[in-house]
């Protein structure tokens, strides 16, 4: 029975860790009390604890972790709980990568890793570390792998593990129970029957009864090991043939899984009757074979252990010389005993101190703490503190190498005490690592980052960067200035809150595609401004890659392009309004040209009488005046908008100007059946141009009449306020869409274009109103609750000091009324002159022609007398020409008819629409009469 002292002897030189292991109560641990630990565990742990290098041992199936003092700093905050825990539980973050190697080590392999990179969480946060280390199997007395030993070193800002392993193998002690079985056998050479005794049958695993009664020889030879069977059969054949001695050793596989060794001896015997038999004995020599094998293996193990010890010593010497870390061994007095080659690269031509007091020659300075910058005293060196009683010590210092005055290097120094089995100090080991390059690189990186942040914070764009590994974002100050969101709240996905909800999903999808492919990113989206509005920004980003091509970071900018974006939209809107204006201008010019053309062709016909001449002249005169008004409007708005109009200023009675406007607009108001109401609550005089003011109010009234469905209500009010007067025109018309209100006074702006064009105009009136009102120093506003809700236009002018009254006289106008062959023709056009003039022209060609000025009238007339030809305008006020032709074709039945479109719309898509609606031909005003007559007569084709 070992004494308690002997049981813990392997812990004596284990330093603080050895004492901690000895103090622990292991009775509740799966390993049990120290007294029950396997010899191999004790031996291995003694080696680990006695090592001056960071070393740990993982034992058993649970890989229970033991480690020495030098390994404690590597554990960081895990050091307190790591002792006795499973290896995988201590380093779960590294276990997936190390587990395959650990499994192979437990199968007997050894590994050496140099500059192995791994991410650890030993300080409660992930950190990248590098190690040079070795994994070695730890075997017990039987040679079975029971655990592993790892020697590891960490240096130069990364951990470089130096593999140093040593396994202790004990000679295999084989203890097998000797059976002592000797069996007999007899093989009759004549009959081939083989008889054996019970012990032989048991050895060959054959039924004893069968063996006694006799069986064939092959039943026994088949039980011999396949590798030995050919040799045994050859020896039997040779002994029988030559009648010489049979003596051979072979194996018999057992059901238990092992081989039994047999020594068989025999020869051929002859009996008095002349029979011959081959007989002999079989002896179980398994124990002897096992002992011989054990002896050979023991000798081999002893030789291998001696060789490994020598190799380990040589490897350690080579490792010390090759290690990039300077290593010193010192005796208890501080005398330098051994120093490897790396020390000269760090310290230069250093002296050989004989005691701690002589460390004064070595120049070193503290780098942090309250003593930063102060020179080290001899007793301040880590190795001196260890020799003074500490188990270990470490520090980052600045040194001046010998022979290099003024040169400073930054070194990491670690020192550990060496003790014997009684815990007595026998010396110390110190490792010096030059980390100057790392410190300089870290400083340069910090300086570079400070410069980057300073530049990023002064440039106009918003700047950001993100790290692929950490996911951390950097946002310059412009981000917070623009969004009003603090930088801390922008981290992770916090910046999502600033992106417009409609843009976030496509933005992220585009970003993920660029990040996955590692390509340039560019996307336009809206970002919320601190003024609580969304502004358009251009987001761009580029990836940054390491030397191996791996993308490590992304850096991007966001540029405010809101003005550019909205400017483009305004330019497109202006271009669209221009195109719509040109289309409307073409339509408005074609409408008067059509009756003019018809009248001209009527005048050219022979036999012209006085009535036709006067009628044609009236048509031409009216339509020319209409065209003149259009041209005048164009010239007028051009002069006003360019500031070329000079107002003929005088004191103008606002009531008289309103009356003049009502007089001009009343015919249109009455023609469309509107109810008109005039409310005057105080008038006044303004300094202005009466003609232009009448033009302003007349334009507003005409617009109200045109854009209000027939039978609507129009109200004109005059209200006086201190210093000003407001004239407002309110209608129950089609209203104004919210998105149109801000553009309603722009040039060429009208409500949505409809085919009927019953309102007419070029979209110039309101622009002219605004310009003229501004010339008078006033203001004009438009209000509408939306489409179908009517509109109100208000003009406010400054009052002048004047009193006279100027009465206004109303005026009225009368509209012409329509009059009533080879073909019966119905013409439908809301332009009376166009309809009547074409009627007269076609009647002159001998056709029976009637005219209607509305779609409903046309349907009634067609129902009463179905014509052969329909000539339809597209822009009809009640039912447009497209819908009318569909209704007529639905009513046609068996009555054939020819459907002709005659319209001011002449673009390609207008012809496609008329064809799809059901028209046979499409003519543009003013019509080519010859082509029209040719189509009616059926002798030509429409263009």
What does this structure look like?
With 943 residues, the protein is an alpha+beta fold. 37% of the residues lie in helices and 25% in strands. It has 28 helices and 34 strands. The protein has a six-stranded antiparallel β-sheet with strand order 8-7-6-11-10-9, with helices on both faces. The chain is elongated and about 170 Å long.
Which residues form runs of ≥5 with pLDDT under 50?
159-180, 753-760, 805-820, 939-943
* Total beta-strand segments: 34
Mean pLDDT: 82
Proportion of helical residues: 25-40%
Shape: elongated
What order do the strands of the largest sheet run in, or round the barrel if closed?
8-7-6-11-10-9
What is the tally of helical segments? 28
Give Rg in angstroms.
56 Å
Distance between the termini: 125 Å
Strand content: 25-35%
Q: How would you classify the helix and strand content by structural class?
A: alpha+beta
Q: Major sheet, described briefly?
A: 6 strands, antiparallel
Q: Helix and strand layout, with pairings?
A:
Layout: H1 4-7, H2 15-23, H3 39-50, E1 55-59, E2 64-67, H4 72-75, H5 79-82, H6 87-90, H7 95-106, E3 111-120, E4 127-139, E5 145-153, E6 182-188, E7 193-196, H8 198-203, H9 208-213, E8 215-216, H10 218-221, H11 229-242, E9 246-253, E10 259-270, E11 276-284, H12 286-322, E12 326-330, E13 336-339, H13 342-347, E14 363-366, H14 382-387, E15 392-400, E16 409-419, E17 425-434, H15 436-456, E18 462-467, E19 473-475, H16 477-483, H17 501-517, E20 521-529, E21 533-545, E22 551-560, H18 562-603, H19 610-641, E23 650-653, H20 654-671, E24 675-681, E25 685-688, H21 690-706, E26 713-721, E27 724-731, H22 738-741, H23 765-775, E28 779-783, E29 791-798, E30 824-828, H24 832-844, E31 848-852, H25 855-864, E32 869-872, H26 881-892, E33 898-903, H27 908-917, E34 921-924, H28 929-937
Parallel strand pairs: 24-26, 30-31, 30-32, 32-33, 33-34
Antiparallel strand pairs: 1-2, 1-5, 3-4, 4-5, 6-7, 6-11, 7-8, 9-10, 10-11, 12-13, 12-17, 14-15, 15-16, 16-17, 18-19, 18-22, 20-21, 21-22, 23-25, 26-27, 27-29, 28-29
Helix pairs in contact: 18-19, 18-24, 19-23, 20-21, 21-23, 25-26
């Amino acid at each position: 029975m070992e004494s308690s002292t002997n049981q813990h002897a392997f812990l004596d030189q284990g330093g603080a860790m050895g004492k901690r292991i000895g103090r622990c109560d292991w009775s509740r641990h799966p390993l049990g009390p120290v007294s029950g630990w396997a010899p191999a565990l004790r031996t291995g742990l003694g080696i680990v604890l006695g090592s001056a290098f960071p070393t740990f041992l993982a034992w058993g199936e649970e890989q229970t972790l033991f480690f020495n003092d030098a390994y404690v700093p590597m554990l960081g905050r895990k050091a307190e709980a790591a002792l006795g825990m499973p290896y995988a539980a201590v380093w779960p973050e590294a276990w997936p990568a190390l587990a395959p190697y650990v499994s192979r080590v437990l199968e007997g392999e050894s590994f050496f890793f140099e500059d192995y990179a791994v991410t650890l969480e030993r300080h409660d946060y992930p950190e990248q570390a590098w190690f040079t280390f070795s994994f070695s199997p730890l075997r017990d007395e039987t040679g079975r792998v029971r655990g592993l030993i790892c020697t590891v070193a960490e240096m130069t800002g990364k951990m470089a593990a130096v593999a140093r392993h040593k396994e202790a193998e004990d000679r295999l002690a084989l203890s097998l129970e000797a059976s002592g079985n000797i069996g007999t056998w007899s093989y009759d050479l004549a009959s081939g029957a083989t008889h054996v005794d019970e012990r032989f049958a048991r050895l060959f695993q054959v039924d004893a009864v069968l063996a006694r009664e006799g069986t064939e020889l092959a039943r026994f030879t088949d039980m011999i090991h396949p590798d030995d069977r050919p040799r045994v059969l050859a020896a039997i054949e040779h002994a029988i043939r030559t009648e010489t001695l049979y003596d051979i050793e072979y194996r018999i596989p057992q059901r238990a899984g092992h081989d039994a060794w047999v020594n068989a001896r025999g020869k051929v015997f002859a009996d008095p009757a002349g029979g011959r038999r081959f007989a002999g004995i079989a002896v179980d020599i398994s124990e002897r074979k096992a002992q011989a094998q054990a002896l050979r293996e023991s000798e081999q193990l002893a030789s291998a252990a001696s060789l490994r010890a020598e190799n380990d010593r040589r490897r350690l010497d080579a490792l010390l010389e090759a290690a990039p870390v300077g290593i010193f061994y010192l005796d208890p007095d501080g005398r330098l005993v051994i120093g490897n080659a790396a020390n000269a690269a760090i310290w230069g031509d250093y002296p050989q101190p004989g005691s701690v007091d002589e460390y004064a020659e070595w120049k070193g300075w503290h780098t942090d703490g309250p003593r930063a910058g102060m020179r080290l005293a001899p007793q301040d060196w880590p190795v001196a503190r260890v020799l003074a009683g500490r188990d270990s010590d470490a520090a980052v210092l600045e040194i001046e190498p010998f022979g290099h005055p003024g040169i400073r290097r930054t070194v990491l120094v670690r020192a550990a005490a060496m003790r014997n089995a009684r815990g007595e100090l026998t010396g110390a080991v110190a490792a010096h690592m030059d980390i100057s390059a790392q410190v300089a690189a870290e400083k340069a990186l910090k300086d570079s980052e400070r410069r980057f942040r300073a530049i990023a914070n002064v440039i106009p764009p918003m700047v950001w960067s993100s790290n692929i590994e950490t996911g951390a974002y950097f946002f310059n100050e412009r981000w917070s200035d623009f969004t009003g969101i603090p930088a801390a709240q922008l981290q992770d996905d916090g910046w999502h809150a600033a992106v417009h909800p409609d843009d976030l999903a496509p933005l992220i999808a585009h970003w993920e595609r660029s990040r996955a492919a590692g390509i340039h990113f560019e996307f336009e989206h809206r970002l919320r401004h601190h003024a609580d509005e969304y502004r358009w920004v251009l987001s761009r980003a580029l990836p940054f890659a390491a030397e191996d091509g791996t993308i490590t970071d992304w850096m991007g900018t966001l540029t405010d392009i809101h003005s550019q974006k909205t400017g483009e939209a305004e330019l497109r809107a202006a271009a669209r309004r221009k195109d719509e204006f040109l289309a409307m201008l073409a339509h408005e010019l074609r409408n008067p040209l059509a009756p003019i053309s018809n009248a001209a062709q009527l005048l050219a016909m022979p036999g012209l009488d006085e009535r036709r001449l006067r009628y044609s002249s009236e048509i031409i005169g009216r339509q020319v005046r209409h065209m003149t008004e259009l041209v005048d409007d164009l010239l007028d708005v051009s002069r006003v908008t360019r500031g070329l109009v000079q107002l003929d200023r005088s004191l103008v009675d606002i009531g008289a100007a309103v009356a003049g406007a009502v007089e001009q607009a009343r015919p249109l108001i009455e023609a469309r059946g509107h109810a008109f109401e005039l409310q005057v609550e105080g008038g006044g005089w303004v300094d202005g141009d009466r003609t232009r003011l009448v033009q302003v109010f007349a334009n507003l009234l005409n617009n109200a009449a045109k854009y209000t469905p027939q039978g609507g209500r129009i109200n004109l009010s005059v209200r006086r306020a201190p210093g000003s007067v407001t004239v407002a025109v309110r209608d129950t018309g089609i209203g104004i869409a919210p998105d149109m209100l801000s553009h309603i006074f722009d040039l060429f702006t009208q409500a949505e274009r409809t085919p009927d064009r019953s309102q007419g105009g070029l979209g110039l009136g309101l622009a002219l109103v605004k310009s003229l009102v501004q010339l008078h120093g006033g203001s004009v506003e438009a209000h509408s609750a939306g489409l179908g809700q009517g509109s109100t236009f208000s003009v406010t002018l400054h009052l002048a000091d004047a009193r006279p009254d100027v009465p206004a006289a109303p005026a009225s106008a009368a509209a012409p009324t329509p009059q009533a062959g080879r073909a019966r023709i119905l013409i439908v056009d809301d332009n009376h002159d166009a309809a009547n003039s074409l009627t007269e022209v076609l009647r002159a060609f001998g056709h029976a022609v009637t005219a209607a000025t509305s779609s409903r009238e046309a349907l009634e007339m067609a129902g009463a007398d179905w014509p052969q030809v329909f000539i339809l305008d597209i822009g009809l006020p009640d039912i447009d020409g497209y819908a009318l032709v569909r209704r007529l074709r639905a009513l046609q039945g068996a009555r054939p008819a020819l459907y002709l479109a005659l319209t001011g719309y002449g673009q390609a898509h207008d012809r496609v629409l008329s064809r799809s609606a059901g028209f046979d031909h499409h003519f543009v005003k003013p019509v080519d009469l010859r082509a029209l007559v040719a189509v009616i007569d059926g002798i030509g084709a429409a263009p």
